[in-house]
Each structure stands twice: as structure tokens, then as C-alpha cells.
Write a structure and sequence with these properties.
Layout (H helix, E strand, L loop, with lengths): L3 H10 L4 H14 L6 E4 L1 H17 L9 E5 L26 H8 L3 E6 L33 H8 L5 E6 L5 H7 L2 E4 L19 E6 L2 H11 L25 E5 L9 H16 L3 E5 L4 H19 L18 H9 L2 H14 L5 H21 L5 E5 L15 H6 L5 H6 L3 E8 L5 E7 L5 H10 L1
The structure holds glutamine.
């Protein structure tokens, strides 16, 4: 992996140029093409941007992220680069503008190398639902990288860029970060603008960074964060609170019953991290995160309901590549343009919103959402942060869960509740299991405690 904060010193002292680094990354992308991490590589564009960055270093005009080589998940608009959301229905689509988060990074000096592969419309946990082929885990190419932002996680893990952007609706940044051994951060809802992010479930969607280190993730986050006139749900950057010392920090940990379903190696890593924090002086407080049987069902009802509405625009008439038919263009387009998982979600979402079932499913899920948010508010009166696993298992074999959607959906058990409540959560790599596969642990904190969550995770 290549760290921007380390490279920046080399760029500044002249021992490495941005152009040299870009050439290394382009060569690595070509050498590792079998990982299928990228859907589009903009070699000419990134070379030109790198040359301009080198010029700025020479002139002493380097901006905070000057020469940070950035990969962007293919559900975020970058003007001049195609965007497919890994779907056939958006084949050949060229966005007319750049997402705010990306724009801010470019304005701070980042150079965009390309667009990364993902689960179709960000629906999945394994990157197997992409219309453009599975992404492979660099630690073991027979295994999935996680999803839906698998390409972005792999791009960082395999050293194909400095940092990347993902989107996290129910875990799609943190889960692939854990599977690939990188840092993945989902900020507080609204702190990073969603303008230019293709909506999956608007009330749950978040944009966030992948990076090799916590310092790198923080550097990217700091630049992206803040209110945006183009996203009415965005909020100003939370005021940086002084970080309480680890000594005396109250860290909530899960009682045993919540983690017995995890792989033994993950349970061991969890116990070791708790012990480490205890030795650093943290007060370890066992907490009960209630309604846990409701987390995944609540997420899948709300996410599919919102998706069925958000994806209605892709009909081959207003949006999306048209699949011609003499009878019904819309049906033909949506049947051939969307893959199986997306169609499953649209059908489920339409069902839970339909007049006869709306109260039984959608309204109840909204009530459950309130209970889950209240549960977190209550827990955060007792502790400063919560430490929990990111995933119950390490990266699984390609194909292992494809025939069982419910098993796939349950792999989001530890991540979805943070989206339901909108709280910040980061996955940090803590080592490998006996098979040599990465393990990630997760730190969650109260709304707007983004800086504290990152600082505690850095200690973990
Ligand atoms: N894995 C979850 C899902 O399939 C989360 C996806 C996401 O966060 N975009 O919906």
C-alpha cells in the first residue's frame, strides 16, 4: 500500500515526483488487471494532472492533497469519465458534472486515476453483482473483496492508488475495508455531501474514504466534509472537539452473546483489542445494543423501499440505456438493464411500500429505526465510543453465498445499525486470521464525533 501522507514528504523534498508515482500506479493496475478493481482508468487525464501537481510542488504552491492519487467508486460522478454504477443500464453514460466530494478533493490537489468496480447500484456485500465481473481479493484471489465498494477497497489494498472513495448504505465501505485490510470510514450522515452520488437509499447513503492509514483517511475526510448548497441534507463540518485522552475514555464493548457467531479468530482479535485499550487506561464498559434482531430487517425494508423509488428513473426514457422493444420499452429496459439482485431489491421495496403492506412493513421499519437511534443515544450517555467487529467472518470464497441472499444480507449484521442511526463508524485493520486473511474491527461513536472515532480507531 502507498500512503499519501508519507509520499507527500517525498514530493516535498523532491525524492519522488507525482508523475513517477502515477506511472507506478498505472503499471500496477495493468499488472493486477485480474483483480478487476477498475471499470475505467483515465491514464491521459491523470498524467496531465500529475504533471500540474509536480509543477506546483516545484513552485512551492502545493495544496493539502497535492498529488494524492485518488480512485472513485463508479456510482459517483466525475465529469469526463463514464459512470455505470456497474450496471448495464448505465452503459455509456457520461455525467455532466463532478460530485461535490470529488470536486473538493480535486480542488485540494488530488488527481483522479479512474473509476472502481462495485456491486451493481451498490447492492451487495461481495462485489459479485457487478455487471462487469467479480472483483478479487488481493490477499487471496479466490475470495471476494467484500462490497459494495470492493473495487475501491482493492485499489488501496493492492497499492493501485493512495486513497479511494466509497459509498456506505449498510456497510459498503467498512465491510470491504475489513476484508481487504485497509481503513474504511463512514462519517456522520450529512457531513459529506451526496451531490453526484447515485442514490441507492438516500436516508442511509454516505460517502467516505478508504486509505492505508488512519492519518490518510482523516486527510481525505477533512477536505470532503462540510455543508454543500447542492445537498439539502448536508451539514457543516462538526467542530473539532478536543480529543479526550484514551486514559479514562469509556469504551463500550459487546457482551459475549453478540459475538459468539463470529469466527474464532475475529473473537480473539476483538478480545485482544479490548485488552490493549484497557492497558492504555480506557474504561471498558460492557453495553447492550438492543433490538439487534431488528437491525438487518429494518435496514433491508428501508433500503429496498428507497431503492425502488430512486431507481424508478432508469426506464430507458428519462434515464438509462434503452433496450428497444415493439411492445414495452420500459419493461424491456428494466428487465435487461438491471441484474438479478437489483431486480430483487426493486420488487421487495415496491412490495413493502404497496398500499396493503405499507403499514405492516415500511411504517413499522420507520418505527424500528427510531428505536435503534434512541438506543444509540442512550448508550452514548454511558460510553464515549463502542468497539465492535466489522464482520462476523473474514473474506469468503467467490460464489459461497450467491445462492443464498439471506446469508449474504446477514453479513451486514455489525454495520447496518450505524447507517440506520446515522452515526460515524470506521473499520480499522487489526491483523490477519490463521488463513492470512485480514480482520477489521469497528469503532462507532455519537453523531458528529467523527474526529473522536478516528482517533480511537488509530489507537486500536
Ligand atoms: N451490503 C449491503 C447491501 O447489500 C450494504 C450495501 C451498501 O452499503 N451499499 O445492501
Amino acid at each position: 500500500m502507498i500512503s499519501f501522507t508519507e509520499d507527500r514528504q517525498r514530493f516535498l523534498d523532491g525524492s519522488l515526483s507525482v508523475s513517477q508515482r502515477v506511472e507506478q500506479c498505472l503499471a500496477a493496475i495493468a499488472n493486477q488487471a485480474q483483480l478487476n478493481a477498475f471499470l475505467h482508468v483515465d491514464a491521459d487525464g491523470v498524467r496531465a494532472a500529475a504533471a500540474a501537481s509536480d509543477e506546483r510542488y516545484r513552485a512551492g504552491l502545493a495544496r493539502p492533497l497535492e498529488g494524492c492519487i485518488l480512485a472513485v467508486k463508479d456510482n459517483m460522478s466525475v465529469k469526463g469519465m463514464p459512470m455505470t454504477c456497474a450496471s448495464r443500464i448505465l452503459e455509456g453514460f457520461m455525467p455532466l458534472y463532478t460530485a461535490t466530494a470529488v470536486e473538493r478533493l480535486i480542488d485540494a490537489g488530488a488527481v483522479v486515476i479512474g473509476k472502481t468496480n462495485m456491486d451493481e447500484f451498490a447492492m451487495g456485500s461481495s462485489n459479485e453483482t457487478s455487471a462487469y465481473g467479480v472483483v478479487r481479493n488481493p490477499h487471496d484471489p479466490s475470495r471476494v473483496p467484500g462490497g459494495s465498494s470492493g473495487g475501491s477497497a482493492v485499489a488501496v489494498a493492492a497499492g493501485l492508488c493512495h486513497a479511494s472513495l466509497g459509498s456506505d448504505t449498510g456497510g459498503s465501505i467498512r465491510q470491504p475495508a475489513a476484508f481487504c485490510g485497509v481503513v474504511g470510514f463512514k462519517p456522520t450522515y450529512g457531513v459529506v455531501s451526496r451531490y453526484g452520488l447515485t442514490a441507492f437509499a438516500s436516508s442511509l447513503d454516505h460517502v467516505g474514504p478508504f486509505a492505508p492509514t488512519m492519518a490518510d483517511a482523516q486527510a481525505v475526510f477533512d477536505v470532503m466534509a462540510g455543508a454543500d448548497a447542492m445537498d439539502s441534507t448536508s451539514v457543516p463540518t462538526p467542530e473539532a472537539q478536543p480529543m479526550p485522552p484514551i486514559d479514562g475514555l469509556k469504551v463500550g464493548v459487546l457482551e459475549e452473546s453478540y459475538i459468539t457467531g463470529c469466527d474464532q479468530d475475529i473473537q480473539d482479535a476483538y478480545a485482544a483489542a479490548i485488552e490493549k485499550l484497557r492497558q492504555m487506561g480506557a474504561t471498558i464498559v460492557p453495553v447492550q445494543l438492543q433490538h439487534e434482531q431488528a437491525w438487518v430487517p429494518t435496514y433491508f425494508i428501508l433500503a429496498t423501499a428507497e431503492a425502488s423509488s430512486n431507481l424508478a428513473r432508469f426506464d430507458g426514457v428519462r434515464y438509462g440505456k434503452r433496450f428497444e422493444s415493439d411492445v414495452d420499452i420500459v419493461t424491456e429496459t428494466r428487465s435487461r438493464g438491471f441484474g438479478t439482485e437489483v431486480q430483487r431489491r426493486i420488487m421487495l421495496g415496491t412490495y413493502v411500500l404497496s398500499s396493503g403492506y405499507h403499514d405492516a412493513y415500511y411504517t413499522r421499519a420507520q418505527k424500528a429505526r427510531r428505536l435503534i437511534a434512541d438506543m444509540y443515544n442512550n448508550v452514548f450517555t454511558q460510553v464515549d465510543v463502542i468497539l465492535l467487529p466489522t464482520t462476523p467472518t473474514s473474506a469468503f470464497e467467490i460464489g459461497a453465498k450467491q445462492s443464498d441472499p439471506v446469508a449474504m444480507w446477514l453479513s451486514d449484521y455489525y454495520t447496518v445499525s450505524a447507517n440506520i442511526a446515522g452515526i460515524p463508524a470506521v473499520s480499522v485493520p487489526v491483523g490477519t486470521d490463521t488463513a492470512g486473511l485480514p480482520i477489521g474491527l469497528q469503532v462507532q461513536g455519537p453523531v458528529f464525533a467523527d474526529a473522536m472515532v478516528l482517533a480511537v480507531a488509530a489507537q486500536v
